[in-house]
Amino acid sequence: MNRITIATIQPPVFAEKSSEHHTRIIEAGLGYLKEALQAGAELCCLPEYFNVFGVTEQEMQALASNADELLDRTQALAGQHGAYIILPVLMQEQGRFLNRAYLIGPDGAVAGYYDKTHPTLGEKELLAVTPGNEITVFETDHGRIAIVICYDIYFPELFATLTLRKPDVIFFPSLQRSDHEMASEAILKTRAMDTKAYMVRSSYGCPIDLPWKAGMMFGQSCIVHPDGTMLANAGHYEGLALVRTPVPFHWQRQRCGGYPAMDVRDFLQADRRPDLYEDLGE
User: How many domains does the chain have?
Assistant: First the structure.
């Protein structure tokens, strides 16, 4: 059985937006990333907009030019520790702003990237983010990896597509400030069970030296098992969560009616009705 260590990184978030807080977010996040790597993490995820979070939207656009510098730093860590790292950034390419998550391989090279396919209205109007147009599953040393970003999680068609492509781990860098914790947990568990894949959420938490209270970003960087079990959760405060678990995991259960246990992915695939799903009425 191939067990690996998965880590999700939760930097601090501050009520006041400033360049000082932006720097503290990056350095704290990289510090927790190094801690996870030193603990043996082989798959690590940083949160959405990691290179620009903590300042105003206008400043975020200007800061997008630092994406390459942060990519260099993260690539060096991946190569040093032989790990895969998901680095989400706001970047500018050919005159377009993109909400991109890089997949960096254990050799320190970029193995691929995913551009958020469903930017929010605020992203489109305030940050001029252009949506991506590709859904990709990456072959890695630790199974098949996919990435979705924040608002993407609300689109079941995206996850239906991913389900057919059979990922083993789905990384989910996020801000997701509008939901409450129970809703966030429910949709994470649902998407894990939909895809029969681990869901790894990474967001921001309260600074350790400040009190968390309801209404603040709730953190909840976490790792959810394909069967919907919450395996690890960083909670409300800055830090990290990690778990050592079999990847890939072939989730089995009995088919209804007392039939023998089977791989869930296999029997659901066999019982699909694609002829019924073709017409979405649009």
Answer: 1
